[in-house]
Every structure is written in structure tokens, then in C-alpha cells.
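Risk register update: the risk of archive-format incompatibility is retired. Evidence:
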Amino acid sequence: MKASSGLLDRLAHQHGLLTTPLVGTVLVLLAVALAGALYLRTRRAGGIRPLGTGRFTVRAAAVLAVLVLAAAGYVNAYAGYLPTAQALAQAVTLTPGATAGGQLTSVQIDAPALRMGHGETDIWTPAGYSSSPHRRYPVLYLITGSPGAPADWFRAGRLAETLDALTKAGRMPPAIVVAMNTGAGLVGDTESLDVVGGPQVETYYTHVVVPYVDSHYRTLPDRADRVLGGISSGGYGALNVGLHHTDLFATILAFEPYGDPGPGTAYTLLGGDQARFRANSPSVYIPTMRFTVPVSVFLDVGGATGPDVAQVRALADALRARGQDVLFRVEPGQHHTWSETAAGLPYGLAFAGQHLGHGPR
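Archived output:
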């Protein structure tokens, strides 16, 4: 067990060059050097030239561009959105393909009747999927936060690399990953709800995406072999949708989740219906929820998120009080960012692995 824990710790504390302040610092120094050179040139030329002067404008723009890149580098070091050069390349090219030991493809799973369409779902199949035509696999369904996109799980979350390492170590069986379209676009927000007068996201997940995946991929079509996970608003969505549909999902992984969809949501997404708001607030309904089947829940939060820690701990306590299997983790020093989720993901996947079957199916 110590060796296994060591693996999880190593995976949790991987830091790519782009998640350190080094890149931003180097760019700041470069900007200072460029600005200094520009200043000396203008002194020699007899003072600062009008802004429209060609060479001066180009050089000033270069200094500004480097400063903007430096700021982006510092922000990325904080948020961990693009942890490695490989993640940066994937973000620039926006092309799916081979990822770690598996294959990533993007598909359209439209449902116009539910007002869900024009968004991609990313599906990752593990190494050996194509060469083992009779093998079936458990499925990990994932919901991103807002703003966000399904591909964030593979870029910022380092999901494929982490899954590959855990599978090789026997901590997680080979699994299919489905990073779902939330119906929100890059900057919108649906909280994974059936929005009044809008996208029916929860119904889309449970009545469209799951059947689609079961019919198009070699899955193990049973609740015991399905995991539902998410980050931030997606973590809330995973908890809420998962608890609404314990017949479909036996395991839930919620990173940085909320106990409710937010007070404004009652009006913006739920038509001002307070009963709907309470029915979609796990912090409200868990204490009286009747579990007809057991659910295993992993809850993860950053230690530097202030009151969020107590709120997520309260969710864990409420679930335990209802007799459910819960693992609650606080990631030391982490904020409400992708860095937090990337740090907690190895432990969450290992938790899921304990509840999924191992070996050929």
C-alpha cells in the first residue's frame, strides 16, 4: 500500500514547466531588456518619436506583447490550465488523436428536442481497445466547469496520463472516458440542470449520452461500472445528477463542488421556482434522502479556498450520516483551479478503481 500511495503522491505533485512562475519571470526580464534597448535607441535618436513612427511602434508593440505573455504565464502558473508544452500544443492545434496510452476522438451527440446540440463530446478509449474486440470496459463520465470545454480534462487535468499510470499499476481498470458537452459553450453556464425554457442538460446526460455510449462503444452497461465526475460547477453537477440517478451511477467524483447551484440560479435557470432549487441542492436534500442502492462518493477541495472547505466537508458528513461510502480530501495550499483538480484526480481515480471490477470482461 505504501508503494501505491507513493504513486498517487507522485502523480498528484507533477508540475510541468508552464505551471511554475519561471516562464512569466523570464518573459518579464525579456520585456525589461527590450524596453531598455528601446529607451537607449530613442535617446540616441534624439528623443521619443511620434507613436506612428514605424520602427518605434513595432518595438513598443513587441515589449507590450511580451508583457501580455508574461501576465498569461503567471495566470497559467496559478490556474494550471496548460501544465505542459504538450497541453499547450493540444490547445493550439485543437485536434484529437493519440493521448498517453489511448485514443481521443470528438463526437457530436445532438438532441435538438432537449435543446442540446452544437457541442462536442470528447471520448477517450484506453490502450488495447481496438485490439481487444471482445473486451468490455467501465465508463467514466465527466463534466467540466464554467468556463470550460470537454478537452480541459485532458489538457489541464492530465487525465489520460494519470489514467494510464494508474492502469499500469493496477489501481484502476482500463476504462472509457466520456467528457461531456454541457450545453453552455465556452463561457456559458447550465449547472448541468434541466433549464426552464432552455437546455435540458441533466436529461441529456442520462437519457441521451449514456445510451449513445453504451450502443456505440463496448461498455459494461451497469451502474456498478459507471462513474460520474466533475470540477467546480461540474463537480456540483456530478453530485446532483449522480444522486438523482443512483440507478445509473454507483460512484461519484466531485472536485471543488457546491452544495447548491447558487442563489441567482433559481431565477436565471430555474424560472424562480424555489421547489426546483431545493430539489437541485444536495446540501438541502441529502439529509433526508432515501438511498435505495449504495453510492460511493469522492469529494475533493483545495485547502486555500476558505469557506469552501467547510461546505464540502458538510456534504461529506451528510452523506456519511445516510450510510454512504465517502472519501473526503483537502488538497493543501490549492485554490479553486485546475491545479487543485489535477492534484486530487489520482486519488479520485484510485477511489473509483476500488469500486470497479478489474481484469478482462
